[in-house]
Amino acid sequence: MKSEDALDELISRIPALESCKQEISLAAEAITSCFKSGGTLLACGNGGSCADADHMVGELMKSFEKKRSLPEALKKRLLTASPKRGAYLADQLQAALPAISLCSQSSLTTAISNDMDAALVFAQQVAGYGRKGDVLLAISTSGNSQNVVDAAITAKAKEMIVVGVTGQEGGKLHSYSDITIRVPAESTARVQEYHLPVYHALCRIIENRLF
């Protein structure tokens, strides 16, 4: 499926997301460019959005819908490192797109919350992991979650690209995002129901372009 077809298929299934079509396309382009240049995607959110951040990272770090063979150069190095086990690894491992969920590191996030300020749990990680040209996927149904907004501010200072994913108002996060995907809903549950197909469309488009 071509990238354009993947986006059209999303809109055909969920016509309400037509209002987000351009932003989804721009976000996919920004994330694809980041990966092509050797960059990393960082993702964060709270509650259901935390689970969404983990979910999207899981789709990027292994095959989503397409077969992703390792680069031949890496296969050869695996065989050199261990002729027997390396052959198995070369056959079984999948090409990954480097992505990190800032929600998944419980020891670090609890240390930041206890020793510093709970609102800084994502910003501190962006300060540590983020590099110029990387992408922050900042998810907040309201767009006003302070820890997500602070992560976006820090990402801007690190010269990263910020992709905000919010409800229709966008909140404070919109002001700090280079691209904001604002789904047409206000209630938390309805916003999150729209977010999931958006993430899958992004993963599908990115994978189609890179593999």
Keywords, separated by commas or semicolons:
5 strands; 2 domains; five-stranded parallel sheet; single chain; alpha/beta
Summed up:
By secondary structure, the protein is α/β, with parallel strands linked by helices. It has nine helices and five strands; from the N terminus they run H-H-E-H-H-H-E-H-H-E-H-E-E-H.
Structure report:
By secondary structure, the chain is α/β, with parallel strands linked by helices. The protein folds into two domains: 3-61 and 96-210, Glucose-6-phosphate isomerase like protein, domain 1 (Rossmann fold); 69-95. The chain has nine helices and five strands. Strands 2-1-3-4-5 form a five-stranded parallel beta sheet, sandwiched between helices. Strand 3 (135-139), helix 8 and strand 4 form a beta-alpha-beta unit. Helix 1 runs antiparallel to helix 9, helix 4 (72-81) packs antiparallel against helix 5 and helix 7 runs parallel beside helix 8 (146-157). The longest helix is centred in the last third of the chain and has 23 residues, at 188-210. It is globular.
